[in-house]
Amino acid sequence: xxxxxxxxxxxxxxxxxxxxxxxxxxxxxxxxxxxxxxxxxxxxxxxxxxxxxxxxxxxxxxxxxxxxxxxxxxxxxxxxxxxxxxxxxxxxxxxxxxxxxxxxxxxxxxxxxxxxxxxxxxxxxxxxxxxxxxxxxxxxxxxxxxxxxxxxxxxxxxxxxxxxxxx
Length: 167
Known about the structure:
With 167 residues, the chain is of the alpha/beta class. It has helices spanning 15-28, 64-72, 74-77, 96-105, 107-112, 133-137, 149-164, and strands at residues 4-10, 33-38, 50-58, 61-62, 82-88, 117-122, 124-125, 144-145.
């Protein structure tokens, strides 16, 4: 029977959605079904063998909709293996200090349930897609993209067996 994984993500301007899809595509190569949904569209975790939750970080915090997802689904997440990933500009440079800051951003996720893996990925600034108040405040910065697609795909392929090893 094919294993089913839910990949739920919180995004503000689409960058995290793109990362989520890349992770799902990589995991699906291993003959698992990966359903990808924005966190606000997920109502039920039953029927999934594992869950991956990803989020953008804004103003040094997880997106509010991701925090709501974690609270709303705490009980369901406790029943399955989970992995988390963050997409943030702090990781535009992967220094030990920045990796620690990004790990600290993930504390609300980790407090919900300890993950089998935590992916920390650089984010991007795309002025066309960043139309909210935060995005407008970022106009003074140049457009940039720090997402390392090879690192993202490698994390996905290395995380999948960890999600399914107890199944």
